[in-house]
Amino acid sequence: MDRIRAAYRGYDETETERHKRLPTNAGNRMMAAELDRAVGRWLMRSGLDLGVARILDAGCGRGEFALRLTTLGAKPENIVGIDLLPDRIQAATVACPGARFICGDIAELDLSPGSFDLIACVTLFGSVLDIDDARSVAKRLTVLLKPEGVVLWCDSRYPNPTNSQVRGWTKSEIAGLFPGYGLELEAMTLLPPLARRLGPLTRWAYPLLSLVPPLRARLGGYLTNRSAPSETGSR
Question: How far apart (Å, rounded) are the C-alpha atoms in residues 29 and 23?
Answer without folding.
Answer: 6
